[in-house]
Write a structure and sequence with these properties.
Blueprint: H1 13-17, H2 26-36, E1 41-43, H3 51-57, E2 61-63, H4 65-73, H5 77-94, H6 98-111
Parallel strand pairs: 1-2
């Protein structure tokens, strides 16, 4: 978990799917964001049966690929381009996480 304005966790969808086994801790994440009065988001490629509802019952928003595409589709093209460039910059220069950067670039390649 990385601290900033609010705690964050970059994880894979498998961790969210199987969170009851301890691989991810959405309850801890929800508690930390609530303490700070922050918006908690768990973003995954998808959620299997009932997991989205379980996550949202904790007061955290669950977003999947389709949610993000729908939301971004409401933005004008300039905002979309700015958002993509900002996230790529964040992954490369702030997180300095080559795995995250590779996953972002793979996703962007598949979205075109």
């Amino acid at each position: 978990m990385r601290g900033g304005c609010a705690p964050g966790h970059f994880g894979r969808g498998e961790a969210i799917r199987s969170y009851e086994d301890g691989t991810a801790r959405p309850r801890n994440f929800a508690n930390e964001t609530a303490k700070r009065g922050a918006l908690g988001l768990i973003v995954a490629l998808g959620f299997e049966g009932g997991v989205r509802e379980d996550v949202e019952a904790l007061g955290v928003k669950a977003l999947d690929r389709h949610d993000l595409q729908r939301i971004a589709g409401l933005w004008d093209p300039l905002k979309q381009r700015t958002a993509v460039q900002s996230f790529v910059y964040y992954a490369q220069h702030v997180e300095k996480n080559s795995t995250l950067t590779a996953r972002v670039m793979d996703f962007l390649g598949s979205a075109e």
